[in-house]
What does this fold into?
Amino acid sequence: MKTFLALAAAALFTAAPALAQDTPLRDPVPTAPAQDAPLRVDVTDESGASDLVIAIPAMPTSQNVQTAAGSTTDLGRQIAEVIEADLRNTGLFNTIGPNQARGIGYTEVTSPDFTFWFGNRAQALVQGYVRASGNGLTVGCYLYDVALQTELVRQGFVVSAGDWRRAAHKCADAIYTRLTGEGPYFDSRVVYVSETGPKDRRIKRLAIMDQDGANHRFLTNGQSIVLTPRFAPNHQSIVYMSYQNDRPSLYVYDLDSGRQRLLVDDANLTFAPRFSPDGRWVLFSMAVGGNTDIYRVSASGGSPQRLTNSPGIDTGGSYSPDGSRIVFESDRGGSQQLYVMNADGSGQQRISFGGGRYATPVWSPRGDLIAFTRLGGGAFRIGVMSPSGSGERLLTDAWGDEGPSWSPNGRVLMFFRAGQGGGADVWSVDLTGVNARRIPTPLGGSDPSWGPLRP
It folds into this structure.
């Protein structure tokens, strides 16, 4: 595993620039009017509009040094570009990125020209620096309130040169969290099924990427069809279904070694896997004698334990964040609906009663909502409801939206959108139902699974 170190403030300024220790701060010029409260973004605004203007100039370097990932000057601009994209893609900020903002000097990082930025309509300002350190980089990250002329965030990160994008995501996470009060999610990855080829000869491969589509790579070669990959809580393993050796079975893929192992050694069809929040168990469905029920098995393998026993198809199990309950879909009542039960299979109760059918439920990491696919009126849409079934609302209104997956902070949902021509792409949408956008992938994509925040 690559080393990624977030520096505590004291450590940061021990190792970093003279600008923090030796250069006195300039006296601020009190030209900006005082505001009544610190900067804050309302994330409950369902319009998706934002009036907060945030400037992110390119990050300067104390000395231009060539690294394995490029010069520190170029990396300073690229890091600022990633931070700007992260914040802009939330739909909550009006950004002035490094291609629009003027450059700043190294000594200006901790001594911002508030008068200039206020005159250029910025309300918040992100400044930082990049320094070569051994075989890696030290990246400083600062957030300022322009009107109050105060520092809101100060963080630093030591990364290998190849991990410079992670430093940018960590910086964006710190800013997003400070301004919204929400948890971070930018420094995370997504595993999904990459699709290409005609419908009757579709090639489906496991693929992994950063949440913004960067650092994309394929994990399997497409010789066997793969379905429903799901991240483990330790962000190092993926469980999925594969038709390897013409036998549909569940496998666990280890991201460090690139090796996979059979999870359930059973002749019956096994599918729809998902890890428990503590990573000890895997929920899955197994068809035995024409009946499909939900089982669980130790993440290391072993004998499955059956949790449901109904004359219908029970599948799509997903644990609540505390592991005490499970939501699943079942057609035991005559149509595909959502049910919840205790983790031992007791107390099964139907929670969906709207028109149409419900599928692919997944419990929010916050515990307060369940996302699902609703099938009705000839369309598939993404929706959410409370664990009791109340407060149902749809977040998308396209023709073929399926398979929601929550961001680590429970604020954004990723899903796949099928076109009527047969292809599919990975999309995301905010919990308020706004800011739907396509995630860039080299080929088509389906079944995204958003992994946990990286350490």
